[in-house]
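tool_call: predict_structure(chain=1)
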Amino acid sequence: MNAYKSQPIRNTYGISWQEEYIIGMLEHLGPTNGSHVLEVCGRECDMSPATAHKYLQLTVLKKLVRKQRGKDDYRMTFFVITQKGAKFLEEVKHAH
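tool_result:
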């Protein structure tokens, strides 16, 4: 994904490139727990854990990502893309 080419689409949805990165990562990884999201953001994108957490929470507030409880252990929380998040990624893919 090119951050400059997807800028108009991000503006439409009101999100940043960091949020786009997290949504794209979740599409690639599937349901993922929060600590793994923070680890990947730190390793691949040089985001601090606090920054990655902030943008992860923003994607949840904007209903691009949702929290899902674990099936076997309800204490586990996973993050998954919503239909709105999938629609955003589809628009970004077709913009290139």
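agent: The CA atoms of residues 13 and 88 lie 8 Å apart. Proceeding to next step.
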